[in-house]
Specification:
mainly beta; Immunoglobulin-like; five-stranded mixed sheet; five-stranded antiparallel sheet; 10 strands; globular; disordered C terminus; cell membrane; T cell receptor
Length: 111
């Protein structure tokens, strides 16, 4: 099975590793995301070939689990990880780490 990763943020603000990963069925997989900006939330997204993007997790300060997927975040270290336990062929997808920054906004401004 093949996994690809991507990021959603301005250049050099978010780094995801590894960029490409090939895993055997049943393996434990970790995808890391580091960011250099203050954030309100971090999203882990998944896209299967030819399909739309699906939200897996939205994290702000806690660990979350959904079946074989576990997402963690460390705000102080500006780092998040997505763990896939007992990987399956259906896990072959692009995984995206996206951040929502906490920049100040002018009154009435929207994101």
């Amino acid at each position: 099975m093949s996994l690809r990763t991507g990021v959603s943020a301005a250049k050099n603000e978010v780094e995801q590793s590894p960029q490409d990963l090939t895993a055997q069925e049943g393996e434990f997989i970790t995808i890391n995301c580091s960011y250099s900006i203050a954030i309100n939330a971090l999203h882990w997204l998944q896209q299967h070939p030819g399909r739309g993007i699906v939200s897996l997790f939205m994290l702000s300060s806690e660990k979350k689990k959904n079946g074989r997927l576990i997402a963690t975040i460390n705000i102080q270290e500006r780092h998040s990880s997505l763990h896939i336990t007992a990987s399956q062929p259906r896990d072959s997808a692009i995984y995206i780490c996206a951040v929502r920054h906490s920049a100040l906004q002018a009154p009435g401004a929207r994101t």
